[in-house]
Amino acid sequence: MNCFLPLALLSVCASVASQARSDSVCGRLLNSYESLCSTEDNTALSSVISQGPSGKRGAPGQKGEPGRTGSPAEIDYERVRQIIRRTMEEDNANLGTITHPASSCKHIKRRDANSQNGLYFLQDLEGNVFRTYCDMSTAGGGWSLVASVHENNMKGRCTAGDRWSSEQGYSTTRLHGDGFWENRATYGQASSASSDDYKNSGYYAMNATDIMVWQVPNDTPMNDFESSALLKYHTDNGFLSTYGWNLASLFSVHYNLKAKQYRKYLDNGPAIPITWDRGSNEELLRLYEANTRGEMLPGFVQFRVINHELGAFAFCPGVKIKSGKANVEHPCIGSTSFAGAANYCGDFAARDYGRGWGLSSVLTESVVMIFYR
Question: Distance (Å, rounded) from C-alpha 211 to C-alpha 241?
Fold first, then answer.
């Protein structure tokens, strides 16, 4: 038979898709029904849609009487549901693969509640396909790894490897640094995110409402990321929706990272409360020396903070800076090229400063991983 699509099937498909919480499968089924009709499944589909008998021909004459109208098409609703459900199951099984990338790890988790931590293929809003690590267990799961900040040389100040600050050296004229927090550059692989810097296109081309941060010992194998994380925490107030739905927008549009452009105390960016998944405020404070503890409050993440010398620092993991304090180069990471002093420059800036201002080696020798959801 000709594979016409009855209007009644539209309502069936919409009803089934609504019950199954999936519009995409039904839409794909309907949009491709012509090709589907040539397959075994859709031979079955066409067989459950039958036309009623045609009416009798009217008597001959100049004004013949019209024949009777045939009975309306009949649809086996249960068979249609089975075909749509089977199509959905096939979609779910392939979601996150190179041939069927997901929009996010949350998308995969929503489709399959039993999905496991590991590498999946995602496609961002611009059509870029990339492979990244998904955490499917913490706080409901569905977290997409988009970046990691790794300090390859604590003594190298804004040298090779300091992508999140400047690889061009300390400079009083290059006030912006390399702009890695704001730009569209990508680097590295998710599987080695604990051994080097990492940034995928999802960082700037995915929509998210919250972030999660893990602090993982350097060189941890990917399969041990979750179990080895020293500290784990996330935001849950949807703050990214206010700043363009991702961190690239937060920095490039709302809180630029430029030295000597902003006032200390007054021009710091937002401080967002966190929920602890592993660790606590008390545990975090014990990893900082006394002077630095006096500058900050645990239980937050803060963005774009300014130090006494008017250098800008991108991100304060796990803490916010107290009002009237500005020694931010110790707890915060990602400086601009000019940070007020050469020994404040670098991805981890002055985290190893000492003399009451340093951090435990547990933190200085750990990577900061950033996830979206």
Answer: 11
Strand, helix or coil for residue 284:
helix
- Packing angle of the helix pair 7-20, 24-31 (nearest 10 deg): 160
**Per-residue tokens: 370:** 């950033």
**Phi and psi dihedrals of 100, rounded to 5?**
-145, 65
3-state secondary structure of 31: helix
| Torsion angle in degrees (nearest 10) through CA of 350, 356, 362, 368 | -40
Cα–Cα distance measured from residue 187 to residue 199, given in angstroms and rounded to the nearest whole number: 5
Is residue 79 very low, low, confident or very high in pLDDT (cuts 50, 70, 90)? Answer: confident
Other CB atoms within a 10 A radius of the CB of residue 50 amount to 12
CA distance 350 to 357: 8
Strand 300-306: give its sheet, edge to edge. Answer: 271-273, 300-306, 312-316, 333-335
Distance (Å, whole) CA 104 – CA 123 = 7
CB atoms within 10 A of CB 58: 12
> Strand 319-321 to strand 366-372: parallel, antiparallel, or no bridges (unpaired)?
unpaired
CB 220 within 8 A of CB 244: no
In order of 24, 104, 144, 151, the CA distances from 131 in angstroms are: 22, 11, 10, 23
294-335: pLDDT as tens digits: 999 999 999 999 999 999 999 999 999 999 999 999 999 999
Q: Which residue is it, tokens 């779910």? A: 92
For the chain, what is the radius of gyration of the CA atoms?
Answer: 28
Return the closest-CA partner of residue 370 out of 221, 230, 192, 216.
216
Q: Determine which helix (DSSP H) or strand (DSSP E) holds 278, and give its type and residue range.
A: strand 275-278
d(CA 350, CA 174): 19
What are the backbone angles phi and psi of residue 126, rounded to the nearest 5°? -100, 5
Question: pTM for this structure?
Answer: 0.79
Helix extents (H) in 21-155: 24-31, 33-36, 40-47, 77-94, 105-111
d(CA 10, CA 178): 53
Lookup: tokens for 152: 């390859």
